[in-house]
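Please, why this fold?
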Amino acid sequence: MVPIQKRVAAIHDLSGFGKCSLSVILPVLSSMGHEVCCVPTAVLSSHTGGLSDVTVRDLTPEMPGFLRQWSALQIPFDGIYTGFLGSAEQLRVVHDFIKTFRREDTLVMVDPAMADNGSLYRTYTPEMAAGTKQLCREADLIVPNMTEACLLLGEPYREGPYTRAWVEDALHRLTELGPRTAVMTGVWFSPELLGAAGYDRMTGELSYALSARVQGGYHGTGDLFAAVLLGALLRRVKLRDALQLAVDFTAGAIRRTREARGDPRWGVCFEPELPRLIHELGL
């Protein structure tokens, strides 16, 4: 019997160039067998990380129309995935979207994409940071990086290397905000390895997934990781295995990019890794 295809609402921006947000989430989740319904929050000529003269069209006024039509059509969603949001108004629309479409079995994943390297993004206001924390309270799963985890917990940013005691305590406290599961990226205990850690407060499962570190910074890797993680969990893969799958896929894409000597601002070569991902899922 062919399994019923899972349907995901992906609420993210779309960059015409530079692999991030919807331009990586859509092919990754689709290759994992899921239907992706996009709610574009903005359209950009490219991402803004190190690229200049970016053309941006804010789509906030159009977002309620997506909610209105989809609600009238009574579209059921197995997953709702939100990422970077550009304004407090977008946060309010996403709140309404989750309230409207969440069912008992819907997996709501929030990537609180608001900060990195110890600082809030320049477009993020304190009001938006507070709104993002509230959105995390409504999630089933959150995937902050280390900067975002510290902001959500109301404590100063910590530089690595980390200790297992701090990572595990932070994960427990993140789930106390509301989500059943918290996953932190950017976890490392020694310079050679980098990865993620996750905690499910309902089962008590605590998991680590690490891979050999590749030097340098690459745009869009957080979106790649989160998309694979969500796609695997929707296929009933256990948290520890979903974490390792997401870490290995992201690391593989980064290694390909480094070996090809590609410009890291242009995103990572994830496409050649998709067949291996499909194979590992047995699709």
